[in-house]
Structure formats: C-alpha cells, structure tokens
Amino acid sequence: MTQILFKNINMKDLHTMKVYEEQGGYRSLKKAFAQKPEEIVEAVKASGLRGRGGAGFPAGLKWSFLAKDVFPRYLCCNADESEPGTCKDRELMLKNPHMLIEGMILCAYACRIETGYNYLRGEFHDLNVIMEKAMEDAYAKGYLGKNILGSGFNFDLYTHLGAGAYICGEESALLNSLEGERGEPRMKPPFPAVEGLYAKPTVVNNVETLCVVPYIVNEGAEKYASLGTEKSKGTKLVSVSGHVKKPGNYEVVLGTPIREIIYDLAGGIPNDNKLKAFIPGGSSVPMLPADQVDVLYDYESLAAAGTMLGSGAMIVIDDSVNIVETTLRLISFYMHESCGKCTPCREGTRWLYQIVEKIMQNKGQLDYIEKMEDICDNMNMKAFCPLADACVSPVVSSIKYFRSDYEEYFKNVPVSSV
Amino acid sequence: MSDNEVTLTIDGKSVTVPKGTKVVDAAKQVDVAIPVFCYHEKIGPLGCCRMCLVEVEKMPKLMTACTMDVMPDMVVKTTTEKVEKAQKGVLEFTLLNHPLDCPVCDKGGECPLQDNTFKYGMPDTRMEFHRANNAKATPLSPVITIDRERCIACQRCTAYSERIEQDQGLVMLNRGFHNEVGTFNNEPYDNRFSGNVIDICPVGALTNTDFRFKARTWDLTNAATLCAHCGCNCNITMGTRLNKLMRIEARPNDAVDDGWICDKGRWGHHFVHSENKILTARENSRGDGKPTSFPVLPHDCTIEVAAGKVAEAFKKIVEEHGPESVGFIGSPYGTNEENYLYQKLFRHCLGSNNIDHKTYQDAPGLPVSHYDVEQIETSNVVLLIASDPTEELPILDLRIKKAVTTCGTRLVSLNDQKIALDRYSSQSVQYKVGCEALAIDALTNGLARELGESAPAQGSDQSGVSAEDMKSLVETVRTSMKICVVYNPSALSGEAVFGVKRLLKMIAKVPTMECGAMPAAPMTNAVGAMDMGLLPDFYPGAVPMSEQEEIKKQWGENAPTGTGLSALEMIARAGKGQLKALLVHRSNPVMDFPGGSQVVEALKKLDFLVVHDMLETETAKLANLVLPSNGPGYDEGTTTNIGGRVQARTKALETDHAPDWKIINLMLNALGDETDYDKVADVTEEIAFRVPGYQEISKRSVGKTGCNRESIASADELVSAKPAGPGKNGSLRLRIATFLFAHDKILEASSKLAHHFQPSTAYLHEKDAQRLGIEDGDTVLLSAENVNLEATAKVNNRCQSGGVVVPRVSDEQGVNGLIGVDGGMAWVEVRKV
Prior knowledge:
The complex is a heterodimer of chains A (418) and B (833).
Chain A: H1 17-22, H2 27-33, H3 37-47, H4 59-64, E1 74-79, H5 88-95, H6 97-111, E2 115-120, H7 125-140, E3 156-161, H8 171-178, E4 202-206, H9 207-219, H10 221-225, E5 235-242, E6 248-253, E7 256-257, H11 258-265, E8 275-279, E9 288-289, E10 296-297, H12 299-304, E11 313-318, H13 323-337, H14 343-360, H15 368-379, H16 387-411
Parallel strand pairs in A: 1-2, 1-4, 2-3, 5-11
Antiparallel strand pairs in A: 5-6, 7-10, 8-9, 8-11
Helix pairs in contact in A: 2-6, 2-9, 3-6, 5-6, 6-9, 13-14, 13-16, 14-15, 14-16, 15-16
Chain B: E1 5-10, E2 13-18, H1 23-29, E3 53-56, E4 63-64, E5 75-77, H2 81-95, H3 112-120, E6 138-141, E7 144-146, H4 156-165, E8 170-173, E9 180-183, H5 196-200, E10 206-208, E11 221-226, E12 235-241, E13 244-250, H6 263-267, E14 281-283, E15 299-301, H7 303-321, E16 326-329, H8 336-349, E17 355-356, E18 369-370, H9 375-378, E19 381-385, H10 389-392, H11 394-406, E20 410-415, E21 425-430, H12 436-450, H13 467-478, E22 482-487, H14 496-509, E23 514-519, H15 526-531, E24 538-539, E25 543-544, H16 548-555, H17 567-576, E26 581-585, H18 589-592, H19 597-604, E27 608-613, H20 618-621, E28 625-628, E29 637-640, E30 645-649, H21 660-670, H22 680-690, H23 699-702, E31 707-708, E32 732-737, H24 745-748, E33 761-764, H25 766-772, E34 779-784, E35 787-795, E36 803-807, E37 827-832
Parallel strand pairs in B: 1-5, 16-17, 16-26, 18-23, 19-20, 19-22, 20-21, 22-23, 26-27, 27-28, 32-36, 33-35
Antiparallel strand pairs in B: 1-2, 3-4, 3-5, 6-7, 7-10, 8-9, 11-12, 12-13, 14-15, 14-28, 24-25, 29-30, 30-31, 32-37, 34-35, 34-37
Helix pairs in contact in B: 7-21, 8-21, 8-22, 12-13, 12-14, 17-19
C-alpha cells in the first residue's frame, strides 16, 4: 500500500537532522520558495487534502480563508491529540519531528505567516523534548528563523504544552488556552481565519495534515490526488486498537475496505473471538456493528453508513464485550472532559453516566432507554460545541445496534425497584 | 431602510434594526420575549446557558438568539415544537442539580430561573438521582455570599468581572461539572464594584450578605430614587419594609450609570437609620440666656417653634448689625429645592449675599457644552484634570474603562498624583503638587501657539511637567476632534479652576473641534449648588452680581447685588466677631473646613449659630439651635449630576418631621415671604420659572430618568495664574486626596464596608523620603498649623518630589486641620517618629 507519511517511519535516527536530510528532508523548501505563496495554496487545494484532525475540512480552502492584508497572522499546529483511540500524531512527532516542522514552514510560507505555535497536549512532555531538539537543529541549519535559505521569508516556531484537557483540541479552545485563558471554545463567527490567536487571522491544522504538505510540494498535487477516492484524496493514518492481534498505526489509502484494515493490516481478532462492533473514527463517532465491516474507509462512505471518519482511530470490539460497559466508559470520558461552559453538556454527560451506571448495577428501569434517547436529543446540536454531540454518539449508536445488551440488564430487575 | 439596518421576521412580525443587533434584542422590539439566563445587554453574549435557542429557516440546527447577529430576510421562529422541546430540555438540565431552595432563597420572587421554569419548563423532573452537593453560604467578601449549589454556571458574573470591572475579581475555577465561581487563590472579592454581580446573578447564588433573610422581595416597597454619595447620582431602587431601608439595587439608566452602582452606593446606606440622626429640632444649652443655678439642658421643640425662633433671631441681628452680619453655609449635598429656597431666604428676606457651599474657588457655568456622562463613549479623547474617578466618582471610572476598551476613546490624565485609571490612559502627565495653574496654563498657551495666537513663551517647567510631555499633550488635545474635559474643581488650588475655563475656551477655538466639559466635583449636587446660586458672587443660573439690571428684574428691586462673603471669609469674620449669625445646612465646618480648632473658636464667637443637618456633627454641638434634615432615603426633590442631568429623588421612608424644604418654607413665611409650597414639585416649578437653564425642568420632564438642564454659560474670568510660593525649608506641599471608603459619619454605621477602611497614610516621593530619612512603612508625623497628624509613610512616587499625598481616610484623622483657616496652600513638615 502506498506509504507517504510512514514511508521510512521506522528508520533509525530519522528524528535527527542528518538522517532526515539524507532521506530528502527539507528539499521542498527551496522548491516552494521558488513559487509564489498563492501557488502553494492552490496546490494544496488541488491535492484534495482534507483536515486529518477529525473535521475533514479541505485544508487549502481553509488557508484561503485567511483575512487578506491583516498582519500579524499565526499558524497553530494542533498536536493536542486527545480523541480516544487516536495515537497517530504521537508517532509522527516521536519518530519524524522534522517532517512536521517542514510542513509548518511550507504552510507558513503559503499563508504569509511569520509565527507558528505547536500546541502539544500536556501529557506529551517527552515529545516536547524531541520537538524542541528538532527545532533547535532546524534553527541551526537556517530552516527556521530569519531569511530562510535567503528567501526573505521569516518563520519562528514555538512549542506550547497544554494541561490535560480534551476540549483544548477544539481549535477555538486551543487558541484560548494558548492565550492563557480558560480552555473553553469561542463563539463562531468570527472564525479563526478572520479572528484567531490574539484576534488575528490564524490557521489551525492537525499534525498529520501539515506533515502531508512537503509531499505535495515535492511530488505535486496530482500525485497525491491520484490516490484515494473522488472526494477523499490521499492516505490516512489509522490508529487501530482494541481486540486486534497487531494494534498500531497504519497508513492506508482512503477508500480501503475496513475489513482489510482490521483483518489484514491489524491481523484480525485474537483468541478466536468474533467481531462485534467497531468505532471507525475515534470514540466521538457512532459505532458500527460487525456486519458493516465492508464499508470503505473514506469520508463519504462512512458518512453514508451513519458514522464519520473522524480522527482515524479504529477501535475494534469483539463479542466478549458488553457494549453497555463500553458505553459507560466512553460517557465517563466526555463527562470528565466537558469544559462546563454550557448547560446541556455539563449536566447531560453526567446524567447519562449516572443512568448507565445504574443500569449496570441492575437497578435500571425499562424506560431508561427512552429517557436516554430523549436526553441525547436534548443534547444533540444544542450545546455550545460538538463535545455534547460526541458524547451522544456512543449512546445513540449502542442503543441502535445493541439494544439487546441493554435489555439484558432489565431482565432481572424487579419492576417496582428504584 | 439604510445600509446600516437589517429587516427580518420574528414569529411572523417584521422588524428593522441596526446591523449588528442580536436576534434576542431585535425580538424585544416586537414584543417577542425569548428566555435567557446568561445574556445581559451590558455584558454581551456568552452562549453558555442555551436557553435562547430558536429556529431559523434554512439553518440545520437551533441557534442561540443571543449570539446571532440579525441577517437580512432572516426568518426566526420562537414558538415551534422543536424550540419548545429544546427549552424544556435546557431547563431540565439547568434544574438537574439545582437545590429546591426556593422557600429559603432570597432570590425567590425575582428569580429568572423560577420565571422561566414556570413559563417554558416542565412541571416535573425525571432526575431521580441524588443532587450534587456543594458549598452553601460561603462568603466571597464581607458583603457577598455565594451559594455554589444554586449556581447554574451562566458565567454572567465572571464575564462582568472581565469585561466591565476589568479587575479579574471573579473567575471560573475547575472544569466541567466541577466548575465553580470563585476568586484566584481564595482572595476576597472586594473591589468597589463587586455588588453588581448580585443584581445580575439569575439565581440565588450570589447574594447580598447584608440583606440575606431580612425580607421577601415582594414585601418590599420600592422607591425609584438616586444615590447621594457622589456626583454621579446613580439611579437606584430603595427597597423598604415597615419604614426600614432593607436594600439598594441598581436602576439602570444608560445616561448616568449604565446599569451599575458602586459598593458604597449599594451598602453605604445604614446611616439612614443611624442612632446619630437628628430627628427633632432642639435648642442647645445656650437657651434664653436667663441666668440660673441649674444648667439649661438641650430640649426638643417643634419644627414650627424652631423655625420661628431662627427667623426671629436672624431678623433681629440684621436689624441691629446689617445684612453683612449674617451668613449661610449651605451644602453641595442638599437638593436643588433646598438650596434654592435657602438662597432665596437669605437674599430675599435678609438682604444678604453671604451665601456659599464650598471651601475651594469656582464659578458656575462653562464656556463650552456641558457634556453628559454618556458622551464619554462618543468622545475621541477624555482629558482628566485633577480628577481621580476611581475614588471620587466610581461609575465614571467604569464608563471611562468602557469607552477606552470598546469605543476607541483615548484617556489622558493631567494630575498631580498617579491614579488607578493610569493603566488605561495613553498619556499621564503629572504636575507638581500645587502647580496645577501653571500646568493648565502651559497647556492653554501651547494650544494658543498652535493656533497662531500670541502666548507667553514656554517658561522653565516650574509646573513639573517636561516640555516634551506638554508638547505631546498639546498635540493630543489639538487633534482630538471631540474632547471631553473632566475636571475636579475641588482639587484645584487657588484660582486654577479659572485656568481650566480659559483652557476650555482655547480648545473650543481649534477648528472642527467639538469640546465639552464636566465639572466633576465628588459631591452629590455640586453642580446643582452652583446652578442654584449658593454663591456670594452669583445669583441662580450663573448670573453674576455685576448684572444688576437682570437681577433686579428677576428678583425684585431690593435684591442685594453686592458680592458677599465666601464660606472661609465668613468663618474668618466670625472669628473677628464681625459675623454675628450663621446658618449651616448639611455641612460640618469644624471637621471639613481648613483651620481645625480656629474654626471652633470662630463659631463659638457667633451670637447665633443654627445647624440644619442630618447627623450629629461637631458643628451641631456648638449650635444654639439644631434643625433636623432629612437626607437620602427621606428626601425629595431634584439634584443635578456632573453631567448637568437633573434627576428626581423620591422618598423611600417616612419621617415624623417636615422635610427640609418645608422647614425652609416655614422660615420664609416667618420672615414675611408668603409663598406656600404644598409639595416639593411646587419648588421645582418655581426653579424652572426663575433659574436660567432650568426652564424645561419639571416633574414630568425629569420623569424617572432625568433631563439635562441647558448648558449654562460662564462669565468671563480675568484671573491669571500665580505660581505657588516656595516652601519653608524642606516642608512638603500637602495634597489631600479623596478616598471613597473614608470612615466618616456616613460610613460609620455601615460596618459592612468596614473592610475597606484604611489607616492614615502619607505618600511620598523617594527623593523627599531619602532627604528626610524616611523609609517605606515608617510612622511619620505631619505637622502644620499646630496640628500633628500621624501616618504611615509609603514611598511610591505617587506625586512628584516636593509634595505629599494624604488621602482623607477618616474624620478622626483631622487632615483638614493641617491647612490654614484661610484655605491657602498647606505646607507640612514631615518627620519620622
């Protein structure tokens, strides 16, 4: 399978400048500086690259939204990777930090940005050390700083560690956190492209998205667009976890059948168990039952199946698992991570947790399912940001496909017990 | 419909509003009420509570009306099934862990959560789990108690702290379900505007500690009146029960307070029921003069008897010694009606112009427009001269912050001391203490030169302002296009205030300049007192004594037209035995006038001293006769604020005795004036008839929000600035600064604000401190005029070298005693104790 980001991911010392340059690293810079910034934006647009953090918004289009003639402007790399199941950015930064730096320089050049921030989740303090060393080396080589390679283009890069909040992966909450404010999402509009960091035009992109940019500059947009499906171009890193023989990060061409990802790449289900369900894009997207395993892994196909590609984390669940327990664990994540700004999410996530917990204690009533569905309806699309919707996903989809797992709990509950 | 307007449809009704209006505000215009919790017009949209969800055609999901700007041809529906279900859902979530405290919660009866639940919520809840517990009745400060169980995390208070107060008082701590409103590091939330969060909290979480459990809000009788602590005259509602003042709330008036009041206004009201209140008229021990072997003790008498005695005594003294031998010291805290009637009494009945209300120099009227407080937001530059709004006029501080941070206004401060608002100013120019006249004239001359007029050459910077700073200031003023000059006449020594008027005239000469001013004396009705002619050299409406013809036409042939004595001159004359009788209204010369013990001696020499006051004072102790004054809470009438806005004071409480204006009426009657005023509006009517500038003022025009009186033009002043003389070997010029929470007779009884009281402090410049061998924190003695004042030294360069700033922090401090009885510049020796 065509490998772009993972081409030589396991090469020894790839994180060092020497090895990275030997592999052709940073050669895209010269090529880019010979072009006009707008041309790079057009190339990224033509490549069909979509945001790899979860939203899937066309990257080139986002770059072109930057408010014209407003300076200074900023580039923020979203390395907050907190979507449950997702660990791809971690691998990229751990083993190939220079690729991210190269991608950021290109994006900054294309968007006329002179200051960039890499926002790492607080738990990535070890990765931060690696990133900072790589940046130090890049500065030493003149790839960062003033007048890069004599082009007249300046770019300064900084890292910033978060403090353990999933919500800070949401771009506007990330900007608030970076500014030193409470990590709560902002009202949109205005969008970050118009008023972002310090109320200036800002591009916020995921690590993986930025890492693709050097390939597009080096090999051309068409080559990237030749991979994948009509609307989902290129490759995607998938973090496969759960009941598989070979969990890990895999790079797949978009449009690959999910069956291939689970059974071929990840080696299938261990212990002779059968597949029960899988969550294709991180816990925030609805889960699918085993009979959907032939759905193709691209944005459109998954949307048509009633779920989303999301961040690209495949959580595989076999039939030894009680889905209700899974759902409880997932709800607890959202309850813990809710920022608390808006009422439906703050109260709703906790209430859902309390209800499912009670079900698992064999104290639930039959009408709990109806109640949960109603609560989900009151939360869905009613909150300030999509975290509430993310909490709703596992609940609604688990009830839809695995209602019997819930009903098991009601069998032994006396009707009048509370 | 212009480009700046948008037309949309809400619930089938068409409405046109300015661009940028939020849907929730547009809906109000067509009587569509969209429920909210976190939205507040002054704080701005937050989007936290989700209560205002509405359906908008062509949008896939429900939108919050408070965060959405109106768009052309938008179709909004607020009563569809979807919306109603969402509203019920949001309310269910909001009430999920909200304690059922209504029976014991102060907010009951005026609670938006109750109201919205009744209107839009479900009658029951499906929550059957144990509700989360949290801390209840936790003090955030001595005056604010928070009940965290009730908090619905709407973030109105934290947003208020951030956007309005701009003081980072209340912040949201922790995340998600554990979030709670608190302060950084549990420090007390005790800035001077904290009380507003009680008004804006939509539930009973942030409560008024002073008012907790004292009364149910529906038992309160509410009077729409004004605060009387400072010249802002913020609009308030006094809630009383059984004739006791229970609490004060803000009563939003965009033209004055923008919806806020300061903590002094909110909690500094206990003096209204103070045991030191003068409740009846009484004669003090200096009675009929019959020698007896028993001491004649003070005895109460009726108002009528007292008024009669006052009239009789004054009439007799005028007959014997002439009208120059009687005088009136009035008050910038009296209402317009009281002030008007008193000046009428002394001029019309006693023929005397010995009328005054202040110890500083000033003249009424302005050579430019009198700007109202709102115009601070539309001015390009606000120039503060000798003014410290944070201490003197707190709501002005909020208004300036708002203008600077949201309206693009630039703040410039010209002062002898550093002020809290400096962090908002684009330029803070400091002159030496006592050198304001020089600094102001330098500014005027600088502008004159720019306009091509002749002006004295820029001398050496005797004022303490560098030539560069002055040049920059001149440039800022010259290019401002719309400037609002806020100056504090009570903080300008000597005749510097006339320099300000000259400056205003010069600014107005700059082409295409819009210039307005605000005389920002801290006292409640300083502007009104000037307008009502409580001055020895002006009749009401800024008519100077020189305009004899006009005076005689308006006030009769016998109206006296010789310039009378100023307040300080009256004290001096009394000391010499030349002033025989004095009536003092709502003023305490013994404590508040310069001169200390000399004032006492002077007053003792009077044949007859009448004090008409609200609380027992040192001056009242010396009086022959004491009359009760109503004061705030009981008074009626009008006052004029720093913006020239005349507003109505309505009484909230009843007294046994007649109101002030009635007492003065009785005295007028006893002295031969036959006018009978039935109600205070009758006096207001006469003011409208007689006082230039007040023609449009009537009970109706003033209404509930007030009415600006016409700008009153000032007479020409030809006084030139004299530099303050040199000090005597090493002494420092004294600058008494206002401190909002001074422990005086007003805040004596308000122990709730006692945590704001400060000890006596003297602020020095490091050069002087070094010279005098004083270190930060040392106890020092300030001496002048045989008075010694103890203070803690603080060496923080609050003023320039050569001066010492002493905030007036209490009556006991006796700071006015350091100034000579003639009121000139005070020089103090400062030495370490």
